[in-house]
Amino acid sequence: MAADDPSNAQWQSSLAVAYNRVGDVLVAQGKLEEARKVYRDSLAIAERLADVDRSNTQWQRDVSFASNRVGDVLKAQGKLDEALKTFRDSLAIAKRLADVDRSNTQWQSDLSFAYNRVGDVLVAQGKLEEALKVHRDSLAIAERLAAADRSNTQWQQNLQGSISSIGDLANELVLARDFTRALEASDLVISIAPDQIWLYTNRAHALMFLARVDEARALYLQYRGEKNVAADKPWETVVLEDFAELRKAGLTHPLMDEIEKRFAAGG
Questions:
Q1: Global pTM?
Q2: Which domain holds residue 151?
């Protein structure tokens, strides 16, 4: 149908959707190269439609979504430079739309997701300082949306996703020995979600390596006995597993030995 009438935008759009569905199944089957080809076919259609009518915001948004699918596959294939470029293209579209109408919450949410995808690739590339900036932009949007409607479960989940991304990034910053930014990232998310105890682990690690040992010790001991801190694990287990990861990365400190002994003694 699309071949018979290339000028029929609805049929072209339906063909793009069909390509996406095929691509989704190929991804589920682990056939990433085939999936990438199909997703690129969908993206090509979306780009043609968007070029025909730049004022059609849905078609512009379709290009952004199609780019994300291609980028996801590239990231899964380890082609991080290509994935980053594709995600940046998607981010540029999402930003243009969000800037046109700041009251459009869906477009704002799209922008938050776009920042997150770029940030995740930057983390994978080890560009942690740049990743922190991008994830902060995502978090700021997610926080505004969640505060505007606390009954909206999707926005609350999106906020949690942004918090988790920066919390995980704080861990990467510790392992990269960027303790100042690790503390900055930890403090940022703790200020928004002070009840999420797992966020305090990286804060304690950063304080320890910044020679603020008394503060770190107090934090390590403050949450002893807390259950289900992360992945149903108690605080002590989470901290001790982190210590093992730190040592594996060549990071040691006398306070780690002290805390391990106190945990073992229960005191």
A1: 0.90
A2: 101-194
